């Protein structure tokens, strides 16, 4: 996450604290570059998670590390897809995310563990399931990789970008209402 929504992090970190009590080898890597950084640090301290945590200012700077994680957690609801989500899905990294209606056609219960309500209890439940049943997470990760590879092919993304520039050169306005989301087929477009 971006470190902007302290309450989302509070729920995730509280759930994580509960879920990892019997797992000594869990390490946290957190991207912090938002206005709630200090509050998130205080939560890490309060939950006795600092010794398990490394932070970085941008996921781009540690891309190789992120690609090797056992799972990625996204506590914040963005309302938009981020490249790290798509890349992680493509690479088969299991995701645990706060349910985001704006991403329903891309990330759903078949491709990620979903936290419907951002509470400590729901995060704990999903993280215990992830840790206790890694085969379920692996199955979701395979489906996520298939979805990204079919819906977000590079050649199609380049084609869409070129089409957009051509329309703009001819004076056409670019649609921002979501009616023509780049790369989404009818099957993956949110309802």
Walkthrough of the structure:
- This protein has about 190 residues and is mainly α.
- It has two domains: about 5-150, Glycogen Phosphorylase B (Rossmann fold, 3-Layer(aba) Sandwich), CATH 3.40.50; about 155-190, no CATH class.
- Helices cover about 45% and strands about 10% of the residues.
- The protein is built from seven helices and five strands.
- The strands form two sheets. Strands 3-4-5 form a three-stranded parallel sheet, sandwiched between helices. The protein has a two-stranded parallel ribbon with strand order 1-2.
- α1 packs across α5 and α4 packs across α6 (about 135-150).
- The longest helix is centred in the C-terminal third of the chain and has 18 residues, at about 135-150.
- The two termini are about 25 Å apart.
- The model is unreliable at about 180-185 (pLDDT under 50).
- Biggest β-sheet strands, sense, barrel: 3 strands, parallel
Low-confidence stretches: 181-185
The N- to C-terminal Cα distance equals 25 Å
Structural class by sheet pairing and helices:
mainly alpha
Which homologous superfamily in CATH is the superfamily of the largest domain?
A: Glycogen Phosphorylase B
| CATH fold naming of the largest domain | Rossmann fold
Question: Helicity range of the residues?
Answer: 40-55%
How does the SSE layout of this entry go?
Layout: H1 6-19, E1 28-31, H2 37-46, E2 53-56, H3 63-67, E3 72-74, H4 83-90, E4 95-98, E5 113-115, H5 120-132, H6 134-151, H7 154-169
Parallel strand pairs: 1-2, 3-4, 4-5
Helix pairs in contact: 1-2, 1-5, 4-6
């Amino acid at each position: 996450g971006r470190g902007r929504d302290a309450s989302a992090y509070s729920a995730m970190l509280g759930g994580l604290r509960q879920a990892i009590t019997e797992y000594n080898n869990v390490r946290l890597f957190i991207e912090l570059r938002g206005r709630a950084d200090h509050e998130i640090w205080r939560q890490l301290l309060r939950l006795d998670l600092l010794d398990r945590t490394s932070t970085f200012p941008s996921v781009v700077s540690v891309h190789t590390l992120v690609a090797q994680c056992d799972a990625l957690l996204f506590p914040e609801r963005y309302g938009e897809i981020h490249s790290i989500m798509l890349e992680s899905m493509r690479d088969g990294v299991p995701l645990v995310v706060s349910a985001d209606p704006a991403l329903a056609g891309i990330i759903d219960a078949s491709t990620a563990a979903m936290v419907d309500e951002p509470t400590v209890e729901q995060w704990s439940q999903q993280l215990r399931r992830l840790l206790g049943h890694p085969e379920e997470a692996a199955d979701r990760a395979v489906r996520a990789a298939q979805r990204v590879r079919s819906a977000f092919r590079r050649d199609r993304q380049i084609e869409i970008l070129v089409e957009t520039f051509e329309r703009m050169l001819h004076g056409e306005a670019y649609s921002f209402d979501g009616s023509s989301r780049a790369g989404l087929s009818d099957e993956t477009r949110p309802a």
